[in-house]
């Protein structure tokens, strides 16, 4: 489904079709996508996969659990109740973001319910562990969303947030049961940029969604993305950029669409600047835009030294030689394994690195931040 109102959007039709077919065929009813920061997951859900499912007659609801002013339960209730309204997924998500005190009428038209049972809930007040009643409303809304003779797709973005807070446990348990009960008519796609967070939800034996969703690959943006961007640039800015230079820059930026578009913004401002210079400027500005120095300053000296070590060699962070080198870089005693582990835990909780699960390796959730750290003098 091309997103006609955004000429810059590069539509990933075949990827969307592939994921959709999995759900449509009934082969799977729950999947998980892990993708590094700013690699286009949200844009894909809102502008490719969601609209494709809608065009096939599915009902679609989108929720993002990242840094919402509202609790995950409130966001879910809102998305489910507005799923049958008009407007695109983007418009619905924007409407929720704009509302200062979003309210919701619950109970209206509930099976077996009467009009008097209807209550109005101020979503901004739904905090802390959810009440039994609120969870019943959630189940009721899921039931109405996933009609018996229709198909529905629930997109849960930044799903790892559900595992981030103990208060969410009853919600997670209720959600799992509600979803389980409607397998044939309701599909769910979870996405997230923290591998650890997702593992805590789906892979650990005691995880709430253990074996519930199977992982889907998340391929990087191909060269077609660059071609689309250059064609749009030529149409709008009326300048033809050098394709080879741009493809090189795209690779240098780990095929990250956010940084590539930042680079185009600079080139639109000064189209005669060369691509390599614009690329260098993007890197420099990314640090300020994404507040790398602030994050860096918030870390302790040991956490910084460990981050620096991980940015250079992501395996064996507890090896004897590694610990000694961390100690040397701090000009202090060699840290113990436990101290280093505590520092890594902090980096993980802060969403900076994730364990890959392979041979004790780690990745930076934002590789550009890892590169920025490498470039810093110890
Ligand atoms: N298909 C696309 N076409 C054009 N631009 C895109 C596309 N996908 C992503 N972008 C650009 O990259 C930016 C980041 O994308 P998006 O927010 O979807 O990434 P994300 O993986 O959800 O990131 P995060 O992990 O931070 O949530 C978008 O704001 C947009 O500018
Ligand atoms: Mg996102």
Gross geometry: globular
Q: What is the typical, i.e. mean, pLDDT?
A: 87
Which small molecules are bound?
adenosine-5'-triphosphate, magnesium ion
Strand portion, in percent?
Answer: 5-15%
CATH superfamily of the largest domain: P-loop containing nucleotide triphosphate hydrolases
What does the main sheet amount to? 5 strands, parallel
**What percent of the residues sit in helical stretches (DSSP H or I)?**
40-55%
Please state the second-level CATH architecture of the largest domain.
3-Layer(aba) Sandwich
Structurally, the number of domains stands at 3
General description of the model:
This protein has helices at 13-24, 41-55, 72-81, 89-98, 132-145, 169-181, 195-202, 223-236, 243-252, 257-269, 275-289, 292-297, 301-312, 320-330, 337-349, 367-375, and strands at 30-34, 59-64, 103-106, 119-122, 152-157, 186-192, 214-216, 353-355, 362-364. It has 378 residues and is an alpha/beta fold. The protein has three domains: 13-216, Rossmann fold (3-Layer(aba) Sandwich); 223-289, no CATH class; 292-375, Winged helix-like DNA-binding domain superfamily/Winged helix DNA-binding domain (Arc Repressor Mutant, subunit A, Orthogonal Bundle), CATH 1.10.10. It has a five-stranded parallel beta sheet with strand order 2-5-6-1-7, sandwiched between helices. Helix 3 (72-81) packs parallel to helix 5, helix 10 (257-269) crosses helix 11 (275-289) and helix 13 packs across helix 15. The longest helix is centred in the N-terminal third of the chain and has 15 residues, at 41-55. The radius of gyration is 23 Å and the shape is globular. The protein starts with 12 loop residues before the first helix and ends with a helix. It binds adenosine-5'-triphosphate and magnesium ion (MG). Magnesium ion binds next to helix 2.
């Amino acid at each position: 489904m091309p997103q006609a109102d955004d000429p810059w959007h590069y539509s990933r039709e075949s990827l969307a079709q592939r994921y959709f077919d999995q759900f449509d065929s009934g082969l799977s009813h729950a999947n998980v996508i892990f993708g590094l920061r700013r690699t286009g997951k949200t844009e894909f859900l809102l502008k490719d996969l969601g609209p494709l499912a809608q065009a096939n007659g599915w009902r679609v609801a989108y929720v993002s659990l990242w840094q919402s002013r509202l609790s995950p339960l409130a966001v879910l209730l809102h998305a489910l109740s507005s799923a049958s309204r008009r407007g695109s997924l983007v418009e619905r998500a924007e409407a929720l973001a704009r509302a200062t005190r979003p309210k919701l009428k619950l109970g209206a038209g509930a099976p077996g319910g009467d009009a008097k049972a209807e209550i109005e809930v101020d979503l901004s007040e739904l905090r802390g562990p959810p009440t039994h009643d609120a969870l019943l409303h959630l189940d009721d809304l899921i039931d109405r969303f996933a009609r018996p003779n229709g198909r529905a797709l629930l997109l849960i973005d930044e799903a790892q947030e559900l595992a981030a807070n103990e208060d969410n446990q009853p919600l997670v348990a209720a959600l799992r049961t509600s979803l389980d009960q409607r397998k044939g008519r309701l599909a769910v796609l979870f996405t997230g940029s923290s591998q650890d967070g997702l593992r805590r939800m789906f892979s650990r034996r005691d995880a709430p969604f253990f074996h519930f969703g199977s992982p889907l690959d998340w391929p990087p943006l191909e060269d077609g993305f660059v071609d689309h961007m250059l064609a749009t640039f030529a149409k709008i800015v009326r300048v033809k950029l050098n394709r080879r230079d741009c493809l090189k820059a795209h690779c240098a930026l780990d095929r990250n669409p956010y940084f590539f578009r930042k680079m185009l913004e600079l080139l639109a401002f000064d189209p005669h600047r060369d691509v390599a210079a614009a690329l260098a400027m993007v890197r420099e500005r990314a640090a300020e835009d994404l507040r790398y120095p602030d994050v860096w300053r918030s870390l302790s000296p040991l956490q910084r030294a460990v981050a620096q070590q991980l940015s250079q060699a992501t395996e064996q962070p507890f090896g004897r030689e590694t610990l000694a080198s961390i100690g040397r870089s701090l000009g202090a005693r060699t840290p113990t394994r436990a101290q280093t582990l505590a520092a890594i835990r902090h980096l993980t909780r802060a969403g900076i690195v994730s364990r890959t699960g392979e041979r004790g390796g780690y990745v930076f959730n934002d590789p550009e931040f890892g590169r920025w750290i490498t470039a810093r003098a110890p």
